[in-house]
Amino acid sequence: MENLNYGVIGNGRTAALVSDKGSVDWFCLPDFDSPSIFGKILDKEIGGSLGFIVSSSYSITQQYIEHTNVLITTFDSTKEGCFEVMDFMPRYKTGEEQDYYIPSELYRLIRVRRGNPKFAINYDPKLNYADGEVIHKDGPEYVKTCMKDNLQNAIYMYSSISFNHILNNEEIELVRDEFILISYNQKVIKIDIERVYLEYERTKLYWMNWSNRSKKYTYFDEYIERSMLVLKLMSYQRTGAVLAALTTSIPETVGEMRNWDYRYCWLRDASMSIETLIQVGHSGAARRFMGFIQNILQSKSDNFQIMYGIRYERTLNERELPYLCGYKNSRPVRVGNAAYYQKQNDSYGYLMNVIYQYYLYFKGTLDEVEDMFEVVKHIGRIVMNEWRNPDNGIWEIRNKKEHFVLSKVMCWVALDRGAKIAAMLHKDGYAERYREGADVIKKDILAYGWNGDIQSFTQTYSNLELDSSLLLMEKYGFISPDDERYKKTVNAIYEKLYYKGLMFRYNNPDDFGKPKSAFTICTFWMVRGLYVTGREKEAKELFRRLLTYSNHVKLFSEDLDFTTKEQMGNFPQAYSHLALIDTAILFSEEVTFSKFIRP
C-alpha cells in the first residue's frame, strides 16, 4: 500500500516532513506558514530536499524515540555497517515558566552504530517554494545558501562533515558521529558535536517530560500519545494558534483540484484540538489559545472570521504556483486560502464550548475572566443575529450558501454553553437570554432539520442528502444517543455514506463534483455514533481497522482512498488525530496510580 510515508518533527515554531528513506521533503523557514526551502513533496524534480544516498545493500527503517517527537531513521547494511539519523528541532524551557528555546532550525545527528557505513548527502535547498535560482557561499563555519536575485533571503548550513563532500555529493565513510544543522539564522555560538548532543538531550527530555504529564489509558495508549504529541507540535508557541495541518496542496484525490493550504488556524479545528488536549491533561496550549482568541479581536466591534494566520492575520490571499507539478502531478499548488472570507456559523459553537471549559477548569485572574466574558457576549450577540442565515457550512462549500443543519446545531451549542457560562458568573439576564435563544434554535432544527420521509436528519433544511457531520449532534449534547431520531440518523448515514470500510463526508455534488475520497475524521465519528447507540462490537472492529490505515509511525492525513486505503490530503491532519484520541478513549479508561499497585 502506497502512503504518505513521512515522520514529522517540529518545535512549535516550524516543522519538517522526513520520508521513511530519511529525506527531508518539506521544511518551511522561519515559521510553519513560511515559504519552503525543501519542497520535494510538491515537485520531485525541482522542489528540493535533504537526504542520504546509500547503496542498495542498506535496509532503512524509521521510528520515533518513545514519548518524544525525535525521529530516528536507521540505515543498516550487512556489508558496510549501520548508522542512524536522529532528526529533531530544539524545544525546551530556558528558565522562566513560559520561556522556551524554539529556534528556526533542524538538526540531523548522524550516529555510527556498527562498522564503517558509507553514504553521500544530497543537499538541495530550493528557497521560496523553489521559485528562482539559489547559490551557495562557503565560509569557514557554514555554507550560506541564498537566492541569486536576493542575497538577503538566506539559510545557513553547519556541519562537522566537509562542505565540499556535502555540496559535491561525495561518498563519506562514517567513523564517528557527525551532524548537519540547517538554520534560518547565522548562529552566534559555536556549533560542534558536543553542542548537538546537548540540544538533542535537552529536546528529548522536554518531550519525555511533556508526555509524562499526559493521562495514560488502558487501551490504544500508544496511538493516543502519538496523536497528542502531533497536536502539541502543531501549536504555534508565540501566539497560541493551532494549525489544521503542516502542508499545503496535498490533494484529497490524486489528479483533481481539491488542493488547499492548511497551514492556518481554523477556529473550528483549533477549538476541537484544544478541547482534546484539555481532556488528556494539558492546559498550557489551551491557555495560549485563549490568548490567541482575545488578540484577534482588536475591538468589541470586530467580527470573527472562520480562520486566521498564525500571527493573527486576517487576509490570507490565495495564489497558485504554476511551476510546481504538485503531489503526484496534482495541480494546482496553492498557498494562502481564500476560504477566510466565508461564513461558517458552526465555528461559534466549537469556540464557545472551549471557552466553557476554560471557565470550568482554569482559574484565571479577575481581568482575564472579565476579558473572556466580553468574548462570550460577542459570540452570543453574533449567533443571536446570524443563526437564521445560510452559510457555507463545515465543509466550506465555496460557491453556495445553505441552511446546513450542523451549522444550526452548533449555533445552539454556542448559546447553550453561553448560558452555562453566564450562570456560573451569576449573570442571570444573559443566561436567560441565551437559554431562550438556544430553545428557539432547537425547535427550529427539530422542525426543519428532521425529515420523516427518510427518517433522518438531513444535510440542509432544503435537501434530502445525508452528511457525516450530523453524527456530532450527540457529541455536543444537542440530542441524546438514546433518542430514536439520532439512532435512525446514525443508521441512515451508515447505510448511505459507509463505503468499503470508510466514510464519505457526503456524496452529493459540490463545487468540484462528487467527492471521491474518504474523510478520515468522519470514520472516527461513525465509530462514536455506532458505539453510543449500542453497536459497540461493530464500533470497536471499525476503529481497530481504521488504525491500521495510519502510516508507519502512526500518523494520519486528512483523507483515505476508498480502494487502496492510501493516505491523501494535507498531513498530518489535526482533525484526524483529535478524533482518534476522542474515539480511543471510548474503549479505554484512564490509568491511575492505584492500577499499578497489586492487592
Provide the spatial order of strands within the biggest beta sheet.
6-7-8-11-17-15-14-13
The stretches of 5 or more residues where confidence is low (pLDDT under 50) are: 593-599
Shape: globular
CATH class of the largest domain: Mainly Alpha
Q: Assign a percent range to the helix content.
A: 25-40%
Q: From the helix content, strand content and strand pairing, which structural class follows?
A: alpha+beta
Write down the domain tally: 2
What CATH calls the topology of the largest domain is Glycosyltransferase
Mean model confidence by pLDDT: 94
Q: State Rg.
A: 25 Å
Estimate the strand proportion. 15-25%
Supply the number of helical segments. Answer: 15
Topology, number of strands: 28
Q: Would you kindly provide a written description of the structure presented here, covering whatever features stand out?
A:
- With 599 residues, the protein is an alpha+beta fold.
- The protein has 2 domains: 6-211, Distorted Sandwich (Beta-galactosidase, Chain A, domain 5); 213-596, Glycosyltransferase, CATH 1.50.10.10.
- It is built from 15 helices and 28 strands.
- The strands form 9 sheets. An 8-stranded antiparallel β-sheet has the order 6-7-8-11-17-15-14-13, covered by helices on one side.
- Strand 6 (58-64) and strand 7 form a beta hairpin.
- Helix 5 runs parallel beside helix 15 (574-586), helix 7 (347-361) packs antiparallel against helix 8 and helix 13 (520-532) runs parallel beside helix 15 (574-586).
- The radius of gyration is 25 Å and the shape is globular.
- The two termini are 47 Å apart.
- Mean pLDDT is 94; it is low at 593-599.
